[in-house]
Every structure is written in C-alpha cells, then in structure tokens.
Amino acid sequence: MSSLPNDAATATADTHTIPAPTETADTVHLPTADDANDIAPGLVTLRRALHENVEVGLDLPVTQKLVLEAIEAIEGLDVEVTTGEGLSSIVVVLRGGARKTDSTGVVPAVLLRGDMDGLPVTEATGFDFAATSGRMHACGHDLHTAGLVGALKLLHRDRDSLPGDVVFMFQPGEEGFDGAGKMIDEGVLDAAGPRVKAAFGIHVSADADLGVASSRPGPYMAAFSKMTITVNGKGTHASRPATGMDPIQVGAMLVGQLQEYVTRRFDIFDPLVVTVGQFNGGTAPNVVPDLATLVVSVRTFSETVTSRAEAELPQLVRDLVAAHGLTADVEYEQILPPTINNDAEAEFFLSTFTDLFGEERTVRKANPLPGSEDFSRVLDAVPGAYGHFGVALPNLPVEEREANHSPRARHSDDGLADQALFLAHLAGRRLAQLAED
Q1: Number of C-alpha atoms within 13 angstroms, CB side, residue 238?
Q2: Taking every pair of C-alpha atoms in the chain, what is the biggest distance, in angstroms?
Q3: Count of beta carbons in the 10 Å neighbourhood of residue 419
Q4: What letter does residue 234 receive in the DSSP assignment?
Q5: Measured distance CA(328)–CA(324) in Å, rounded
Q6: pLDDT of 101-147, one tens digit each?
C-alpha cells in the first residue's frame, strides 16, 4: 500500500506518531443514535454519488476519489490513510487516544470492512440517481462504503477514549475479483502494526425488511468453486448423427447426472449445490459440433465437502463421458472458501445489534446462506463475524421487492445511520473487551 499523497490527511502512515499505551483505558465513549442521525444526510449524499458513478472490478478511480474526499472532509482529521498499489483500495487506521496493551502485550486493533465495487448490470430501478453506464450497484456496495465512512466519522469524534486502534478496509473487487485476498496480500490485516484481533463486516439486502440484521455462529456463507467441462466429440451433418459423436447430447446428459449424483452421494445436512450456469455448443442447427462447453457453479459449506467435490466431480464427468465413447477435459478451481463466523464473535455481533436496536430487529439464522463472499478470506485469517442488514424500501410491498443483483434491486438509504452506528459500536465495544482481556 502507498501513502495518500494529500496534506488533508494530516497524519499518514509515514509521519504519524503512535501514542504510547496508557496504564488503564478510560471508559470508552461511543456514539449515540443522535450522533448517527446528525451525519446521516452527508452519508446519503455520498451514497448517491457512489451509486451514480459505479465502477466494476479492482480499478475504481472515481469511487476511490469520492471516498478519499469524504474522509478528508472530516473535521480535525487525525488518521493514517494508505491507498493500494495493485488495486484502488483505501486503508484508514484510526489510533485510539487511550491505547492499552492486552494480555499478549500488544495494543489491540479491530477491522471494519466495506466493499466498493458494482456489477455489469444495466440499472432499471427508476431512481433519480440511477447509473446510466451499463453498470450498477445492484449488490448495495454503495451503502457498504457510505456506512463505513459513517463509522469512521463517528469513531473519529470519540477517538480519545478508544483503548486500541481501528482499521477501516475500503475494498474493490468483491464481485469475482478476490479484492479481499489482494488487500490481505498488501498488508491490510497488519495495517495498525500488530495483526487485527477481530474483523467485522455487514452486507445489505434489498429484499429484507429495513433495519433488521441477521447472522449466525459457524458456517454463514458457502464456498464457491467453478468447474469448466469441455466435451470432445466429432462433428458431422445433423441429418447423420451416427457418423459423428455428439458432444451436445452428452453434455445434456451431464446436466441431469450431476444433480442425481449430488442427491445420492452427499448429506443434505452438509450440502453440495451444483448449478450448470453456462452450456455452449454448436454453430448451426444442421451441424453436430466437435465441442460443447459447460461451466458449473459448485457451492459447499464445509472443508470436507469442498475437498470431496473437487476430488469426485471431475472424475465423475470423465467417466460418464467415456461411457458414451467421448472424452472430457475438466478444469476445477476453488474460487472462495466458505465464510465461517467465529462462534464468540458472531454472538458478540448479534448481541451488540440487539442491545442497540432491540430483539425484534435481530434474526439468528438457522442455516447458512448459499451465496459466497470474499470476506471469507479475512475470516480465514482472523476471528470475526459477518452478517446481513435489511434495506428494502420502507413502503415497497414485499411482493415487489427484488433481491441483490437484480437490475431492479432498490436499496433504501434510510438505514445508513443505523448501519454506521452499528459498525462503530462493533469496533468500539470489541476494543474495550480486548483491552480488558
């Protein structure tokens, strides 16, 4: 990571003097709902600017500029800001004014993460701030980013009472580019000096009730692997298929056989979800082609099933294709590990939300979610927890809500104040616990 070349960030990684730890941490003062409501209009403005100027992937220069400007506008700014070398990331370290060493002899640090990238989706929300570029914040990362800026603003006000440090991870490239892994490679987990002791993130949901949070201990989201199958046949005239070897017919057989194998060989309580998302073959209706290609999404929830799937599915495909006299080339790639919440950190996540907003707004999920998330990289390295936060438009009927990734996914920014307050309390309260351990 490289230092931010801007004098507005008055303390950078190169020049900031880390305050000496105090013998005892003073009582931690944390923001109130009134504090969060006070900054909410600015967060809405930032969110809508991000939404209009959405970018995809690892290179987000406009998004990065908007976020840096929002950070630089914080009154009395006293943070360390670095930007990524290989991607448009931003890392902010906020040093506590009541820093105290924990039982391991280091000043604890907690990480908060918000992802910043969008999707190649043409927006159809009807918002007056809708993007018109063929890209869209269809997954709500504009709210993640604005909410994380809000948490920084709130904690910055109360930094003098913090007994440790907070690392703010503004991440590009969550949507299939492994931005989290790349930021880890560039040192985000060690940005405060010692490795962070805990990490937290939240993801908004366009079709979940506004202001309701959910999570669970243990496995929370699925691992994602991709299997690419090329069925090698022999082309011929469609009127004489017996003179060739039809890869489309054999590929169609695979679609069904993969599902049958899953239901008979894998435990439904430790599931494997296999979906053929792409099936390409042929160039004309009167031609049997040489090749057909299938691309398969594989979702798993444990390391055991993840390893079994990688070992068994490619061999199953080869054997089934061979039974029809053809051959198959199979490439299998593990894209992301499962997102697994630390049990204690997940309980802390849920109890903190309940304490702030009430039991009626807190949901403990019975089962993991089948989607995948590259925050799994962070939770694979340090203890932490991840959860979801509902941001459905408050007056939109349930039957008209559409899920994340839809071109009509409409995320309300009415929950930004609560989102920022929750993130700030996750960091502040956890630091207080760590400082006393």
Answers
A1: 9
A2: 86
A3: 27
A4: B
A5: 11
A6: 888 889 999 999 999 999 999 999 999 999 999 999 999 999 999 99
User: Concatenated DSSP letters for 357-392?
Assistant: H-GGGEEE-SS-BSS--TTHHHHHHS-EEEEEEE-B
Look up residue 124 and give its two tokens. Answer: 């159809």
Task: Quote the tokens at residue 57.
Answer: 């992937």
> CB under 8 Å to 288, separation ≥6 — which residues?
233, 234, 235, 236, 237, 238, 241, 244, 245, 246, 248, 282
SS3 285: coil
Question: By mean pLDDT, which of 263-272, 290-299, 356-365 is the weakest?
Answer: 263-272
Cβ(110)–Cβ(383) below 8 Å: no
Range 55-60 average pLDDT: 97
How far CA 33 is from CA of 30, 187, 331, 417, 424, in Å, comes to 10, 33, 51, 8, 11
Cβ proximity of 164 and 100 under 8 Å: yes
Cα separation values, 264 from 25, 222, 312, Å: 57, 20, 13
Report the half-sphere exposure of 404 (CA within 13 A, side-chain side). Answer: 19
Q: What is the mean pLDDT of the chain?
A: 92
Tens of pLDDT, residues 61-72: 999 999 999 999
pTM higher than the cut 0.85: yes
pLDDT tier at 21, thresholds 50, 70, 90? low
Beta bridge partners of 114: 170
Looking up tokens 């943070």 gives 79
| DSSP type of residue 242 | G
